[in-house]
Amino acid sequence: MGKLREFLSSGTAGWIVAAIAILLGLWVFIRSLTAKDTYDLARLSERVTIRYSDTGDEESMTRGEFEEKIRQLGRIIKPDEGLPNPKTGKLTGVLVATREWTEAIQRLNAEREWAKTQSPFGAGAAGTEKKP
């Protein structure tokens, strides 16, 4: 017990704790810069461009806003349909980046199907599908 008390009274213990805290902070910082998870805050706050194919108009919003609006449609997303055009009401707003659009609708549709299978009310629970 005396050796432990002697070690803790020296400055060595403080420096070890400080070094561990600095290393942990650096690890968290570097990881935040290199992480590319689908739901990372950095990725969800990226700006994306939506093009409405019926009028050719474009709109910019964050990826998080885009995904929220797509989810609010409440139905399976088709590759040729997207967000409703504010001018015409038609579902023509898709991401300009085709690869990202394809990945997004596949992921969101898969998540929707998974959520339906995990529902305690069953896969065909009333009110889970909105009519187009």
What this model shows, in words?
The chain is of the alpha+beta class. It is 50% helix and 14% strand. It contains five helices and four strands; from the N terminus they run H-H-H-E-E-H-E-E-H. A four-stranded antiparallel sheet has the order 2-1-4-3. The longest helix has 23 residues. The mean pLDDT is 83.
What is the mean predicted local confidence, pLDDT?
83
Q: Order of strands across the widest beta sheet?
A: 2-1-4-3
Ranges where pLDDT stays below 50 over 5 or more residues in a row are none
Q: What letter string, H or E per element, gives the SSE order?
A: HHHEEHEEH
State the secondary-structure class.
Answer: alpha+beta
* DSSP helical segment count: 5
Question: Overall 3D geometry?
Answer: elongated
- Termini gap: 74 Å
Question: Helicity, in percent?
Answer: 40-55%
User: How many strand elements?
Assistant: 4
* Strand composition percent: 5-15%
- Profile the largest sheet: 4 strands, antiparallel
Radius of gyration: 24 Å
Q: What are the main properties of this structure?
A:
50% helix; four-stranded antiparallel sheet; alpha+beta; 132 residues
Task: Please render the helix and strand layout as text.
Blueprint: H1 2-9, H2 12-34, H3 41-44, E1 47-52, E2 58-62, H4 63-72, E3 83-84, E4 91-95, H5 98-118
Antiparallel strand pairs: 1-2, 1-4, 3-4
Quick rundown:
50% of the residues lie in helices and 14% in strands. With 132 residues, it is α+β, with helices and mostly antiparallel strands.
